[in-house]
């Protein structure tokens, strides 16, 4: 709770920042879920596996919510374990006149994983400060003319701070919104508080126009959340932080809506869904 109070103090200080639109919604994994959440959210995230699936997502949504579309996968080269530019004309055609926000999900984590698995090009990219990665996503933002979200894995933040404690953590410099994900207890999420991860992100965006994109867990899985109450408690804290400085925190994303092979999503837990809808409809902390 001490860390939560520190976050609110920081949020109060930041409340003078320039306002952005406020988005809140789930990560979705199936097309049919778009209609289900449109009644109570104004945004959703989706990870399309093809350009045709992207077309289907945007067609079904039909402008009702803001789609946050993960596009890092479009540039991922599994052979080198790095991001490489590729022609985006077909991607632009798939998006058409629809409005989207482009998301890059854990790009540095993917590169770190590739380095660990023995791909030297990935190790070189890390050692050089991610120059090719930065160039790819600068160009993506320019070519598509969209806002860009960078969500990074908390383990990368820890790695960066252990290696260079006096420097801000690395972020995608073209990103308009930056956040991290760590699913677990608010005051101790794998060794550090979520406030500490947030402060590291704040240090990296301080003095810029970038906003912080919050991500909270809304699922059950043994190594993260074992009870519905744990999920609810963590979400309440995140919603309260989000509401406390609406001009600085641009969005709150919930991971995730429906079940997958690895996770039991919010949809399968009526108590969690009821609390989420209550929080979405509330304008203040409860």
- Unreliably modeled segments: 4-20
Shape: globular
Radius of gyration: 18 Å
Helix content: 40-55%
Proportion of residues in β-strands: 15-25%
Number of helices: 11
Strand tally is 10
Order of strands in the sheet with most strands = 1-2-3-6-7-8-9-10
Structural class: alpha/beta
**Oligomer status:** single chain
Write the H/E string, N to C: HEHEHEEEHEHHHEHEHEHEH
Main beta sheet, described?
8 strands, parallel, barrel
Give the averaged pLDDT, no decimals. Answer: 93
What is the terminal separation in angstroms? Answer: 15 Å
In short:
The chain is of the alpha/beta class and 286 residues long. The protein is 42% helix and 17% strand. It contains eleven helices and ten strands.
